[in-house]
Amino acid sequence: MFIKKYIQDIWGAVKSLLTGMRRTMYYFTHHKEIITEQYPDNRDTLQLPERFKGEVVMPHDENNEHRCTGCQACELACPNGTIKVIFKNEINAEGKKKKAIDKLVYHLELCTMCNLCIEACPSDAIKMAQTFEHSVFDRNELTKILNNPGSKIMEGVE
Amino acid sequence: MNGSTIIFYLLAAMALVFAALSVTTRQIFRAAIYLLFTLISIAGIYFWLQYEFIAAVQIVVYVGGIVVLIIFSIFLTQQTGEKLPKQKTDRKIFAGLAVFAGFALTILQIYQHTFFETDESAITPTVQNIGTKMLTVDNGGYALPFEVISMLLLAAMIGCIVIALREKKNIEPQRQEDREEHKRIV
Amino acid sequence: MWSFSNIANNIHAWLGNNFNPTMTLVIEMVLAGVAVIGLFAGLGLVLVIMERKVSAWMQIRLGPNRVGPKGMLQSLADTIKLIVKEGLTPDGADKFLFNLAPFIAMIVAMLLMAPIAFAKDFQLWDLNIGVLFVSAVSSIMVISILMAGWASNNKYSLMGAMRSGAQIVSYELSAGLSILTIVVLSGSLSVSDIIYSQADGWWIFKGHIPVLIAFVTFIIAVTAETNRAPFDLAEAESELTAGFHTEYSGMKFALFFLAEYVNVFIVCAIGATLFLGGWMPFHIGSWEGFNQVMDYIPSSIWFFGKTFFLIFVIMWFRWTFPRLRIDQLLNLEWKYLLPISMINLLIVTAMAILKWHF
User: Which among B56, B68, B81 has CB closest to C136?
Assistant: First the structure.
């Protein structure tokens, strides 16, 4: 019936509006729930979420060794050409020529932090760091070389 | 001349000046705004007479209703900033003559009319008195005019509803045809 | 005792002793004008910071917290910024009307202050149609919005102005009808009479459910009339950039902004006067002790407390609900609020005749 539906409509509207108002009143009275980060002030105690992605880095161990085999999977996976792998030929202990990375060039200014390179890497050589204060005065500083100078590949990583 | 008289002449001058401006301006929206100022000045005169209720009704009906309606129709039909074409001279002369004739007629009537003085004390224009007068049927009551006006309003309302309903029926089949044609074209 | 009406009477007596009547009247008018402008400035500052803090806390944010202690001077800093900024007038605009519109908005807001009773026997103008005066004069408000929208010569502004016109004209009806319920119950249009009729209890308690319905309708309708979210279609940042005041900047924009907040204050003051008893203290039946304690709280505190409570409720709406679409807005008014308030008015009239209220 028309009247019944009309009253039901009003009742439903009032109920749903009151639900929303109860939620905002809860937040209004519970200041502990405030999620604002007072960023430059709380730099020392800043807690970033686990999955926050700031930039791509290549971890090195204490012997200045990384895990990158130079397979180019990351370069292929990158949607906008952020990563370039430059090779050099290395002669290993057995006298064989072996391909290894010379530089892993990373253009931070192009990177969208999509995480596809990290997922593509078969040897877990690169990962996402949580640094985020990237502003610089010279754009060239954003082109980074991820492997340290003189570093070489870790034993046993193929 | 005391303060009260000065205020009256100020309000009267405002009403006249804005009325003249509203018919002479060539921008239609400005004409509506000047009309608004004229009506507000007249409401001011009612306030000056201490007819507060009439003044408030003047503002509600004319400013809140009629001027808003006029402005809406200007919004829907006109372009901003476009001036209206200049009037022809013969039209100006005719308009001037018509205004003069109307003015002369009014003045003549006022001068010829003999106003009766009354000993009865004036009725204070409170809402209560106005309401009672409006609905009394004995001498001095306004029940009949009130009912006639309400009949007029009722007729107008029914007319509006009839027009609105008929329009819809005529348009619907047209729309249906349009839709079918659209389908055929697609 | 120390009260607003005593201060006003003392000033009046002192002026009467030292000047002639005309001079006294002129000085009193100037004083009243200065007081109203001062109240405007104070209200603007307080309401803006209040809105920003309330909105922040409701959205789990901190809100302004840099200028002054806890950010309380933020709106003062914003005011100074707005005063210093250049007030641009667009080339294609109708310059006279463009510059006139913000002043009309402001003058209307000032006129609306006249019949409001701020404390016991403290009122600028106790005219016998106070409530009707408010609803009449507030209808001039829409003209300033229409004027601003048209004179800007901007499509967004025009759209905003038209929406606001349709909205205000239709919501005035249900606001008027809900005001009428109280007029019917108290039998007077004068603000002071309505307040005195609530000496034995506020209408919202005395009037049972019909007055409660009228109160809810009133709050919804005035939220729409003051163009605030969820009825802010006239501004609608996400659709019309800023609606009717898109082209305004600097102090001209600030006047519109201030007028909006002052209007919110005024409609809440009217709501508090009609439904919550204005400056009347809270009394319960025959509890003499309790009633006397309540009487010790000054009447101005009662008035401003109730008004700010209603302002908080309106802000609560604003930061909870999403904006309505124009057809939903008009449906709400013509299909729900208006029939409900009409039937409600009938019930209240029957109640007033049969003396069913307390």
Answer: B56
Contacts of B3 in chain C (CB under 8 A): 22, 25
pLDDT tens, N- to C-terminus, chain C (358 residues): 567 777 777 877 887 777 777 777 788 888 888 888 888 888 888 888 888 888 888 888 888 888 878 878 888 888 888 888 887 888 877 788 888 888 888 888 888 888 888 877 777 777 878 888 888 888 888 888 888 888 888 888 888 888 888 888 788 888 888 888 888 888 888 888 888 888 777 777 777 788 888 888 898 888 888 888 788 877 777 777 777 788 888 888 888 888 888 888 988 988 888 888 878 777 776 777 777 777 777 778 888 888 899 999 888 888 888 888 888 888 888 888 888 888 988 988 888 888 776 6
| Whole-angstrom distance, CA of residue C350 vs CA of residue C62 | 50
Using a CB-CB cut-off of 8 Å, the residues of chain B touching C165 are 68, 71-72, 75
Give pLDDT tens digits for B17-38.
999 888 888 888 888 889 888 9
Domains of chain B: total: 2
pTM of this structure? 0.80
Class of domain A55-153: alpha beta
Q: Give the number of beta-carbon pairs within 8 Å between B and C.
A: 81
- Which tokens is C121 given? 């026997």
Q: Which residues contact C336 (CB under 8 A, 6 or more apart)?
A: A9, A10
Q: If you measure CA to CA, which chain B residue comes closest to C160? A: B75
What would the pLDDT profile of B79-89 be if each residue is shown by its tens digit? 656 677 777 88
Buried b / exposed e over A31-56, threshold 16 CB at 10 Å, is eeeeeeeeeeeeeeeeeeeeeebbbb
**Shortest Cα distance, chain B CAs vs residue C65, angstroms:** 42
Residue B7: inside a domain, yes or no? Answer: yes
Integer CA distances (angstroms), C285 to B76, B131, C211, C281, C356, in order: 57, 34, 19, 12, 17
Cis peptide before C230 (omega within 30 of 0): yes
Distance of CA C47 to the CA centre of its chain: 12
Nearest to B59 among C139, C169, C172 (CB): C139
Interchain CB distance below 8 Å, C58 and A21: no
A-C contacts at Cβ under 8 angstroms = 38
Final residue belonging to a domain, choices B55, B81, B107: B81
List the single best residue of C50, C62, C70, C343 to mutate versus A (max A Cβ within 10 A).
C62
Range of the structural domain that residue B68 is part of: 1-81
**Closest residue by Cα to residue C115 from C255, C3, C266:** C266
Establish if A49 touches chain C: CB-CB under 8 angstroms.
Answer: no
CA distance C281 to C294: 6
C302 Cβ contact partners less than 8 Å away, ≥ 6 residues apart = C277, C278, C279, C280, C281, C282
End-of-domain residue from the set B48, B65, B81: B81
Classify residue B112: in a domain, yes or no: no
Touching, C vs A (3+ Cβ pairs under 8 A): yes
Coil/strand/helix, residue C311 = helix
> DSSP secondary-structure letter at A25?
H
Q: What is the dihedral of CA A73, A79, A85, A86, to 10 degrees?
A: 140
CATH number at residue B38: 1.20.120.1200
Q: Which residue has the tokens 């509506």?
A: B32
B81 touches C: beta carbon within 8 Å: yes
Chain C: touching chains (3 or more CB pairs < 8 Å): A, B
